[in-house]
Each structure stands twice: as structure tokens, then as C-alpha cells.
């Protein structure tokens, strides 16, 4: 049996054995976000032998991703993250199955995409998607492993787990009932040390493995916060608020967009801002001025111009962040 040759070290663990490996092999795991957290989580879940791993992400690989997203190489720049990530982990472990979701999770597709999986990993970097994933998991009755990183810190929690008494553990809204996302910098604006992405991503994989094999004490009703500078962690107890039921999904507000054709036809009506890095702008651009996203708040001003401002980037995520920031 191939289990014994490939997974002998983990099967030798007390309480793991063949039974634990079979639970891993039968599991279906969905990773939403193939970035700094999703890459290490996917790598270690694939190495552990998780039977089916799906990755959902509609972004493309950029040069600025490479320092904290080790599934990608410079040759992958411009390629779809979900496609490359699934190809890499499939190569890492040919015995597993991979599923590509080259899309953004929305209120329209969340229930269908999440519905076929045993557990979901939230490896995203924006609050709108985090709330959406949480609410979909609450409605579907699925556990959610939540991770986040910023600068030198990261956090992990396992949410919405069914307890032995048939009650559910805390969900994301119990930790953060209401967040003004526009006031929270992302990694581009605030920075992040690459190693913290690996640490938190591996913790998320670890909690997933523990959940699937029913081993150890998973982080239910707890939020673990880790600081890479001090190498210390704290665990905060979370109390579920059962008076905050989730019954429907809230549609995220769409960022207004223009087509490239409209931009060319009405170019005198728009002020064009490229929010990518200076290196990316110099390599290729469609015009306008370059104001990187992490410098936008301090540098950008349209000086009373009546022109509509159009932000652009490679995938639309950075420009959407710019719209929210402004």
C-alpha cells in the first residue's frame, strides 16, 4: 500500500496511524486565496495527502508576490494563481486531486463553490470576502479555518465547528462584529515580512489536519495571535454570540469599472492612475501616471480636476483597494 512508503512518518504518530491517513485521503478541502497564506497551506496539505484540494482565486501572479508566495516563480508572472498553484501541488503529490476555481467568491457563487467541501480555509486579504466566507460557512454548517497577516504579526482561528452538544463554536463575526475595512491597511500599504505568511499558512494547514483526523485541541473559540519579532504568541478566548444569527449572504458592493474601449474613446474625460509598483509600470503600462498603492494616500490629489479618476493594476484588486482608500 502506497500509504506506508509515502506517509510512514505521520502514520507513526500516536493516534494517527492508518485510520488518520484514510481520513486525510477522503477529505475535500477548499482554499480561498492562493497568496501568502494559501501557498504554504496548500503545499503542506498536499504533502500530507489530502485527497482533494480546491483553490479559488481570480488573481494573477505579479513580481511583488514572489517574496511571500513560494509556489510561484518569475516565469509565472502574469499567469493565473489558482491554475499555477494547483499545477504545482499536483506535481508535488500526483496521488491527490486538485480543482481550480479561477473566480472571485461572491454572494452569487459562494454556496455552490463551498458546498462540496468538508472544510474551508480563508486565506484572503480583505474583510468583505472574510465576512462572506464566514456567513456562507455558517449557513452551510461548515468549519472555517481563518488566517490573517500584517507586518510582523499573524492570527489563526478555527470557526463554526460543530461541538459534541450540537452547538456551534464562535464564527468570524464573534471576533470582529463590525470592521471599517477602509481604515485597515493591507500588506501592500503596511508591509509584511514573508516568513510570517509561511508560519501562519502552516498553522492553518496544521489546524486543518487536526480537524480532519480528530486529533488534538483545535483553535475553536480561540484566536491565536503570533508575533514574529518577539517569537511569542497569545491565545484569546472568544465567546460565541448566539444573538447574531446569519441567515443570508450580503452582496459585496461592486467597484465601478470602465472598459478599455471606453477608456480610449473618452480618454479626455478620465485621469488615469496606475497603482502598481514603479517596476511594473516601467515594464508595461497603458498610460497615465504611476502612484503605487502604498503611496496613494499621501501623494495622490486630482487638484480639483473635474475629470473622473480611473485606477488600474494587473488584476483589478489593487485598483479596487485604491477606490476604497480614496
Overview of the structural elements:
The chain is of the alpha/beta class and 326 residues long. Helices cover 35% and strands 17% of the residues. The chain has helices at residues 2-6, 8-11, 17-26, 38-48, 81-92, 110-114, 127-140, 172-175, 187-190, 194-213, 260-265, 278-283, 296-299, 317-325, and strands at 28-32, 52-56, 97-101, 119-122, 144-150, 153-159, 222-227, 232-237, 270-274, 289-290, 308-312. An 8-stranded mixed β-sheet has the order 3-2-1-4-5-6-7-8, sandwiched between helices. Strand 9, helix 12 (278-283) and strand 10 form a beta-alpha-beta unit. The mean pLDDT is 87.
Rg measurement, Å: 21 Å
Number of helical segments?
Answer: 14
| Biggest sheet layout | 8 strands, mixed
Summarize the amount of helix as a percent range: 25-40%
Task: Give the structural class.
Answer: alpha/beta
Q: How confident is the prediction overall: mean pLDDT? A: 87
Global shape: globular
- Low-pLDDT parts are none
Instruction: List how many beta strands DSSP finds.
Output: 11
**Portion in strands:** 15-25%
Euclidean distance between termini CA atoms: 58 Å
SSE topology string: HHHEHEHEHEHEEHHHEEHEHEHEH
Strand order of the largest sheet: 3-2-1-4-5-6-7-8
Features:
326 residues; alpha/beta; 8-stranded mixed beta sheet; 3-stranded parallel beta sheet; 35% helix; globular
Write the layout of secondary structure elements.
Elements: H1 2-6, H2 8-11, H3 17-26, E1 28-32, H4 38-48, E2 52-56, H5 81-92, E3 97-101, H6 110-114, E4 119-122, H7 127-140, E5 144-150, E6 153-159, H8 172-175, H9 187-190, H10 194-213, E7 222-227, E8 232-237, H11 260-265, E9 270-274, H12 278-283, E10 289-290, H13 296-299, E11 308-312, H14 317-325
